[in-house]
Amino acid sequence: GVACPGAPVSFMNTSTYSGTGNLAYSWSLGNGANSIALQPTTVYPESGNYQVQLQVSSAEGCVSTVNKLVS
Fold first, then answer.
1. Beta-sheet strands, E only, within 1-71
2. Do 36 and 24 form a contact (C-beta atoms < 8 A)?
3. How does pLDDT run across 10-68, given as a tens digit for each residue?
4. 49: CB partners within 8 A, 6+ apart
5. In sequence order, what DSSP letters do the residues of 29-44 get, joined into one string?
6. Spatial CA neighbour of 11 closest among 33, 35, 39, 45
7. Counting CB atoms within 10 angstroms of each CB, which of 20, 23, 44, 65 has the fewest?
8. pLDDT single digits (tens) 19-31
9. pTM
10. Tell me, what DSSP letter sits at residue 5?
11. Cβ–Cβ < 8 Å for 50, 29
C-alpha cells in the first residue's frame, strides 16, 4: 500500500478460517493507532515506512499474525 501524508489509508483483511466461531482482529497500524475492525482505515502524518501488523485469533485459541510494510 501507499501512505500519502494526511490521506486515509484503508486495509483489506483477506484472512480465511475453516473453523467455527467468531474471529477477533487486532491491528497495529504503525502510526500509534490500533484497531479491532475487520478492515480499518487510518491516516499517516508524514511520508515514511510504517510496519503494520494484523493478528487474528479464533475462539478455539488459534492465532495467526502477518506483518506488512506500508511506505
1. 8-10, 23-28, 34-35, 41-43, 50-58, 63-70
2. yes
3. 999 998 888 888 899 999 999 999 999 999 999 999 988 999 999 999 988 999 999 99
4. 69, 70, 71
5. -SSS-EE-SSS-EEE-
6. 39
7. 20
8. 888 899 999 999 9
9. 0.88
10. T
11. yes
